[in-house]
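Lab intake sheet, docking and co-folding queue.

SAMPLE TYPE: protein with bound small molecule
LIGAND NAME: pyridoxal-5'-phosphate
LIGAND FORMAT: SMILES
REQUESTED OUTPUT: full 3D complex as structure tokens
PRIORITY: normal
SUBMITTED BY: R.K., bench team

The fields below were copied directly from the construct record.
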Amino acid sequence: MSKLPKQKSWAEPYKIKMVEPIKMTTRPYREKAAKEAGYNTFLLKSEDVYIDLLTDSGTNAMSDYQWAGMMLGDEAYAGSKNFYYLWDNVKKYYGMPYFVPTHQGRAAEHMISKILVKPDSIIPGNMYFTTTREHIELAGGKFVDVIIDEAHDPQNTHPFKGNINVNKLEALIKKEGAKNFSYVFMAGPVNMAGGQPFSLKNLKEVSSLLKKYGIPLWLDATRATENAYFIKIREKGYEKKSIEQILVEICSYFDGLWVSAKKDLMVNIGGILATRNKKVYEEARNMVVVYEGLHTYGGLAGRDMEAMARGLEEMVHFDNIKARIGQVEYCGKQLEKYNIPIVYPFGGHAIFVDAKKFLPHLSQDLFPAQTLASEIYIDSGVRGMERGVVSAGRDHATGKHRYPKLELVRLTFPRRVYTQAHIDVTVESIAQVYDDRKKIKGLKMVYEPKHLRFFQARFKKL
Ligand SMILES: *Cc1c(COP(=O)(O)O)cnc(C)c1O
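RESULT FIELD (auto-filled):
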């Protein structure tokens, strides 16, 4: 008799009904494609990619229930029934009474910043996100990072690296004066820290501190169900609570929130601005007409809102999130078997490969993470993205490269899209590149755009 394994395998809580064929390519084909794309994975044609781990944004597979809803789009200019259904679900799952739909998360960030940010005021948060910070700064505010120090250390295994350092935050308020703060925001799990969650204990401390000083607290709820999942499995007292209960409890501490529906809600497009502050709501409802469209569609088709409403119902299923985060964890554990250097703990949405350790013979001037992302693509057609010196850009004052501590390749998992076999292929390819790492030479930048250069920069092989 064979022995049963100690830990039983798990499998995804869905099966495949429709398939999207992907092109199988050869190494010479990919060498040519990579060269044509200037060794920048953002410039590859999606058609030439075998397994696409560039981002989890809008790349999700919708369910049959969501697709069925797409046929029920009420495309009236005003008062679409899909809008009212979505609003009911926003109340139910986020516990916020007021809601304005937007075409993406950044459109909600734009409006929140315009409404709440006073010129020259301070807006602290648990690390920055690219679009969040951009809109705060465009509105004349100043972002300050108040995340705990552990978040900046890739090897630190703190279970809640998304927490705010409450002492740091209070010291900042005392130094600058509470009236100079527009609001504080929290995101969870924190994307730029590697998908790291905050705890409810930390949230409660932040909330009571801010109540004392009369400063509002806002939530970037883009991946909040993943944060709720980590609270359920890591925080004492929440083991028996459902994701739905934890999510509502999280939201109860916030004055309002914004969401990129392209993540948690498992749709391809959409955003949410929701709040319990009636005055902010009224301003947003008025402003959305200027930038997005009428407040009952906000830049979306009725069918998109229906898919979002149904996505809200599916996103809180424990088995769904467990399978999603389980895929990320599986990938991390397989990479460990080959001793590939990665960031800890594994994030909710992605695994980050440490390119500095992977290619120690390359200085940051030779763009190790950019090089590694392109080598992985050439080896197998797997597409990841650079998060290192190219993404960090140049210092505005000196014109020199910013050299970030973290030089990473991000492998991000779209929801319900790939199987464990795809992950095995990904892992084996990275292990192959690791075996051949000494032969890898690095890149030279030959074209550099002025803004957000990582999207369009071009390179040549050395
Ligand atoms: C994607 C994202 C956004 C921006 O949303 P878009 O829908 O891409 O405009 C904001 N915050 C976080 C944490 C995100 O991941």
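REVIEWER NOTE: Residues 27-56+318-461 form a domain with the Aspartate Aminotransferase, domain 1 fold (CATH 3.90.1150.10).
SIGN-OFF: pending second check by T.M.
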